[in-house]
Design brief:
Elements: H1 13-23, H2 31-44, E1 48-52, H3 55-65, E2 73-77, H4 82-90, E3 94-98, E4 120-126, H5 135-145, E5 148-152, E6 160-161, E7 164-165, E8 172-176, E9 189-193, H6 196-205, H7 229-239, H8 242-260, E10 266-267, E11 275-276, E12 282-286, H9 288-291, H10 295-306, E13 311-312, H11 317-320, H12 333-341, E14 342-345, H13 353-366
Parallel strand pairs: 2-3, 2-4, 4-5, 5-8
Antiparallel strand pairs: 1-9, 6-7, 6-11, 8-9, 10-12, 12-14, 13-14
Helix pairs in contact: 1-7, 2-7, 3-4, 3-6, 8-13, 10-13
Length: 371
């Protein structure tokens, strides 16, 4: 089988984890945690980085750090992973979905202001599948309405917007280091910011909110969200390879685009001027009438006939959260369309060019234009 995202073990991960084991420091107090935080902050171009144990807890910690809570509203895209919504609900706030752009699949800035109320406190921007969101327009809206901006860059390590790394533009940003990400620690996450007060608060929250004056005295509710030294060791090894990882992502994306651009019925990723797409995953939309198969039919045939795994796009909240009344009778037509028609092809750092060639060959063989 060709997996949709084959991870790649960083070359120095064994060396670093052995050193970690020999040091006796396996917990969050080990030196690799600090080194990973500092190296990641430097790479993105911010002052502070606070490691945590997942991208989800990074979002939760950032929201807590910003003081967002019960009665507040947070705007976010209608197409994103559920953890973005969950983190908002964890703090007692209301998630307000905004439909997405039909080409970039990111939040549509033209629709944001209509959703702003006197309860709105922040905009959570998601750089979906590695494609940078339209940050200039979003930051302008945020400034006008005095809102905070949270960047979810879990899928966009190394992506750039007008020469800046995504994650360095908003008030705070969150990253995931899950095994299938461009930078991985197996499991893990990071909160980054240029705000020292916010960074200090997040650092306390992730470790039980201990008082700086005396351990086991708590300044409020805290959480066990720390990253272990072992995870940080792997994360650092992975970060050291980010340039080659991004180059490989560009190579595979260029190959797919060149190979699939003439197939009628496939909408391929766009290249936005002044932006660098990290291509965490190579995503396509399938037009059933033009291609000859629906997304679901194509996905099923790729797996059953060729052993090629694909994955669907995220679902809009009205479909993803049937238990939640907030989204009943509220439609996000673009998010719904891409959820119906979108899938991503094998495009992990550990996947091989031969696997990409086999995927293209399979798609071409299934294309009705070749029948």
């Amino acid at each position: 089988m060709i997996p949709v995202n084959r991870p790649k073990t960083p070359k120095k991960s064994l060396q670093y984890t052995k050193k970690c084991l020999k040091s006796g420091w396996l917990s969050s107090l080990g030196s690799y945690v600090t080194e990973f935080e500092q190296s990641f902050a430097k790479y993105i171009g911010v002052k502070y980085a606070v490691s945590v144990n997942s991208g989800t807890t990074a979002l939760h910690t950032a929201l807590l750090g910003l003081g967002i809570g019960s009665g507040d509203e947070v705007i976010l895209p209608a197409s994103t992973i559920g953890s973005c919504y969950f983190a908002i609900w964890y703090v007692g706030a209301k998630a307000v979905a905004v439909d997405v752009d039909p080409r970039s699949y990111n939040i549509d800035p033209n629709l944001i202001e209509a959703k702003i109320t006197n309860k709105t406190k922040a905009i959570m921007v998601v750089h979906l599948y590695g494609q940078p969101a339209e940050m200039n327009a979003i930051m302008k809206i945020a400034k006008k309405h005095k809102l905070m901006v949270i960047e979810d860059a879990a899928e966009a390590h190394g992506a750039e917007y007008y020469g800046k790394k995504v994650g360095s533009i908003g008030d705070v940003a969150c990253f995931s280091f899950y095994a299938n990400k461009i930078v991985t620690s197996g499991e893990g996450g990071m909160v980054i910011t240029n705000n020292k007060k916010l960074a200090d608060k997040c650092r306390k929250l992730r470790n039980y909110n201990f008082s700086p004056k005396k351990r086991f005295i708590h300044d409020g509710i805290g959480y066990n969200y720390v990253m272990s030294n072992l995870q940080a060791a792997i994360g650092l090894a992975s970060l050291e390879e980010i340039s080659s990882s991004l180059a490989y992502k560009q190579k595979l994306a260029s190959f797919y685009t060149k190979s699939l651009k003439d197939i009628n019925g496939l909408q391929l990723p766009i290249e936005i001027p002044n932006c660098k797409n990290a291509h965490w995953m190579y995503v396509v939309l399938v037009d059933k009438k033009k291609f000859g198969l629906s997304r679901d039919q194509l996905s099923e045939k790729l797996m059953s006939e060729y052993g090629i795994q694909t994955r669907d796009f995220f679902y809009p909240p009205e479909l993803a959260f049937p238990f939640c009344n907030d989204f009943k009778n509220k439609e996000n037509p673009i998010a719904a369309k891409i959820a119906r028609d979108g899938l991503y092809l094998p495009s992990g750092i550990g996947n091989t060019m031969s696997e990409f060639r086999l995927t293209v060959k399979a798609i071409k063989s299934l294309y009705s234009g070749n029948q």
